[in-house]
Design goal:
The complex is a heterodimer of chains A (about 280) and B (about 550).
Chain A lengths: L21 E3 L5 E15 L2 E12 L3 E5 L6 H8 L9 E10 L2 E2 L7 H7 E4 L10 H11 L5 H14 L3 H4 L12 H14 L4 E5 L7 H14 L4 E5 L3 H7 L2 E6 L2 E7 H6 L4 H7 L5
Parallel strand pairs in A: 4-9, 4-10, 7-8, 8-9
Antiparallel strand pairs in A: 1-2, 2-3, 2-5, 5-6, 10-11
Helix pairs in contact in A: 3-4, 3-6, 4-6, 6-7
Chain B lengths: L25 E2 L2 E2 H32 L1 H14 L2 H35 L4 H7 L1 H12 L2 H36 L3 H6 L7 H9 L2 H20 L7 H19 L1 H10 L8 H9 L4 E2 L7 E2 L2 H32 L2 H14 L4 H20 L18 H25 L3 H9 L4 H30 L2 H6 L23 H8 L8 H35 L1
Helix pairs in contact in B: 1-21, 2-12, 2-21, 3-5, 3-6, 3-10, 3-11, 6-8, 6-9, 9-10, 9-11, 13-16, 13-18, 14-16, 15-16, 16-18, 17-18, 18-21, 20-21
Classes of the chains: A alpha/beta (about 280), B mainly alpha (about 550).
Bound molecules: adenosine-5'-triphosphate and magnesium ion.
Chain lengths: ~280, ~550
Amino acid sequence: METSSPASAAPVTRSLATPSKASEGRDGAPEPTLIDIRALDFYYGAKQALFDINLAIPDRRVTAFIGPSGCGKSTLLRCLNRMNDLIDGTAVKRGEVKIRDVDIYGPSVDPIELRKRVGMVFQKSNPFPKSIYENIIYGLRIQGVKSKTKLDEVVERSLRGAALWDEVKDRLHESGLGLSGGQQQRLCIARTIAVEPEVILMDEPCSALDPIATAKVEELIHELKKQFTIIIVTHSMQQAARCSDRTAFFYMGKLIEFDETHNIFMNPKNPQTEAYVSGRFG
Amino acid sequence: MPPESSTTPAVDSTVRSFRIQKERTRILGLTWDECIQGFFGGNAFVAVIVLGLITFFLFREGSSFFTQNRDNLTIYRQAGLEYVDFGRQQEKDHAALSRYLSDLRLRTLRHYTDQEGLPAKEAQARLAEFDRFADRFSSASKPLRSLLSDLGDVAVDIKARHQNNLNFAEKRRQLLAAGKTAEAAEVELVPIDYAGEVAAITATLPDFAEASATFAKTLEDLIATPPALPAPELTERLTRFQALTRDYLAGFPATLEAMKAWDPARPVPLAQSFTAFVFGRQWLTASFWQDWYGVMPLIAGSLLVSLIALALAVPLGVGAAVYVNQLASPTEQRLIKPSIEFISAIPSVVLGFFGIAVLGEFLRVASGWSFLAWVPGFPFAERLNALTAGCLLGLIAVPTIFTLAEDAINNVPRAFKEASYALGASRLQTIIRIIVPASLSGIVSAILLGLGRVIGETMVVLLCAGNRIAIPDFTAGLGVVTQPVHTMTGIIAQEMGEVEPGAIHYRALFVVGLLLFFIALLLNFFAQKIVRKYKVSIG
Ligand SMILES: Nc1ncnc2c1ncn2[C@@H]1O[C@H](COP(=O)(O)OP(=O)(O)OP(=O)(O)O)[C@@H](O)[C@H]1O
Ligand SMILES: [Mg+2]
């Protein structure tokens, strides 16, 4: 994997927290920036998928990425935890992504450590073919946590955090694949928050769910944003409007507009944004 | 849609027609589609039919083995061979004890020459007392032996005449079938009075009892005054020898009882013919005494060779599959995959040849290297043994295991892998904790199919396994792998050409074939079952 920026050699850790920039929140209070994306160009082999992205994602807020299919939302999301490293030939050719002022493409950054801090929930729920319990503690297991009491505690806390505890507490040792689609997705969320990341990336987490399961996940997102910074990719305008604080609109690999969710939907500045949110294309 | 060609004249184009009927060409009353379907269906069913035919054929040829083997065991009893074997067993055990003594002599001699530095002549002289002891020990059985040999002659004679009668009966049947009644009448069967003749053998029981008692007394007296040996380790062995001899002597009354109770007229149940085959520890054919068709040594040989092969092929095949699928660069993949798959294209006779000429010789030489002396079973003198054959079979199994395991790993949903990485797992952790467990059933079935491949392989074992028909000595621990063995496939290939069709030996080989066939069927069945179960659970 090529890295474009030689800048920071420091590991990604919370101790380096010094917000680099502040933007105005809806209530006028300054919002500290957690993730700072600057002039990012991203390539799949020879094909450029992202063009000069500049974006400052606020801490402990929900940011929504919207845009027509193929515009690069998932690509950008996967740049934030370097999941794109797993695809051969991908490269950040220019620009940088800083989380708490640490360039995550810096030479000394370990993507494995990064992913412990930046968790991800996928479009299609993908619990491991293991028990519910084992699914939740997987992240801790690989970090070498052995204490049974600690693990039990994390399982309960995570499942409660994902609003799933009451539904599965009696069958923790049954396979995670035996749950319904909505429960599986919440199990994946629980699994992600079990490792206590700072950021949770969600790539269309509700696209395979029915409206009731979707409502549950949205409610959950609302709860989770007290603790986590959440970035959610969605094709549903309503969902973006309901659960995000800020919305970024992408088109053909470019960031078209980024603003308060309220502004994007009620008062978009860019005509392309307006066309998209009003359903005239995309 | 393009307009269909039709047999009816074109309708005026201004009229909108809705024509969906079509005339179909028919061959022998079948439409073209049905013909094609029949062709493919026929091809598909060939496999099923062939499988059925093979099963039927194997059963037909093999099934009468068990009745024939019962006859074989019956004459063994009727002719009194079974009776004489009680005594012969006693004699054999005695011979084993004598061998123990000669081994002890060798050790003592070595002690004198190596440890005490005596010249050979002096050492021999010091062994004089021991030699006298050993001589007396081994010659003690002489009277018994001559008695048994006489009895054996009588029994073998009865059996031979029985066999002649069988041959005559067959000849007569053939002549009759050819319509030569006159010649057939000339072929005369000599009736045998089994009971009367065997009674002559059993009548010698008092003689035997007496000879055996004298024999026992001689041994008892002998071991009461053992020769002195120069080292405690040797004396210990001699004490052990004394204990063994006492055990041996303690078995005498039981043997005598068995001989007394023996009844030549007792019928041999068919089940015994079956157990004698399945659990029989001897495969002995064309013997002057009695033929045994015990499949145990062959099963043990096949199993041992297969286990060695799997011990080699599983780590290699599965390891390579994991590496190629998960870790290798595309260039490495392009190199490794075809190479491994090419192994399966090597004719097994070539591998066997390589095994004899290179691998066997190399292993034998390597087993003599002093830094390898810790390996169990090393050094060994036999160039052809289970290890040589097992290594080559392992090589043969690698492509099967590799290809199927790689498939299984490849079928693990990418989503599992991504989820694992997204939770901060490293590549290795993902492989060990997610990829391998998720593909485990596929890997297990790959191993089963690899085992099937190995058990069925013939040429390599025939050429390289050493072909000694005996149950390997598992008391040697892991060193057992360096012993020569014979296998189920090997024995069929080796003996099938020499046997007379329809003879018991021929049938026995078919039953071995049947056994192999079912082992293969079972392995495949389980492999498929496991894979199907796995598909369901991954959903
Ligand atoms: N693995 C890949 N290799 C090559 N090109 C890719 C790959 N993944 C995505 N792309 C391309 O990158 C562009 C952005 O894809 P991306 O998946 O980020 O779109 P998206 O906005 O998430 O779309 P959707 O809403 O359909 O999920 C697309 O043109 C796509 O074809
Ligand atoms: Mg996407």
